[in-house]
Write a structure and sequence with these properties.
Layout: E1 3-6, H1 8-24, H2 28-44, E2 53-54, H3 55-58, E3 69-74, E4 77-84, E5 89-97, H4 102-109
Parallel strand pairs: 1-5
Antiparallel strand pairs: 2-3, 3-4, 4-5
Helix pairs in contact: 1-2
Length: 110
């Protein structure tokens, strides 16, 4: 079983998702439900770390530095992670709203 580690930025993004739904949309219950949905999907990676698709398979012109990065889709959100098999670690690097230009954001970060 792999262990999951959150990048500080990914933790912040998850908090911002919850904050937006809770305060801007005025729905604390929906905010909690969405965060639980995202974290549940991420926890599944502990047992199935290869379940995410490589970004390079979907976006062949992506920055070569991202060739080992994978992603999973949870509703409107995209979780980008790196699985280091030898170390048994899954690094959750970013959580994006799929309705935005997240590919541009990914390219800017790396």
């Amino acid at each position: 079983m792999a262990s999951i580690k959150f990048d500080q930025e990914a933790s912040q993004e998850l908090f911002e998702i919850q904050d937006y739904i809770e305060n801007q949309l005025k729905s604390p219950r929906a905010a909690l439900k969405k965060v639980r949905e995202i974290t549940k999907a991420i926890r599944l990676l502990e047992n199935f770390p290869d379940s995410g698709n490589y970004l390079k398979n979907i976006y062949p012109n992506l920055n070569p530095a991202l060739k080992e990065h994978r992603h999973i889709v949870i509703g409107n959100y995209i979780v980008v992670y790196l699985y280091l098999e030898k170390e048994g670690i899954i690094y959750i690097q970013s959580i994006y709203d799929g309705r935005t230009n997240y590919l541009e954001k990914i390219s800017e970060k790396r």
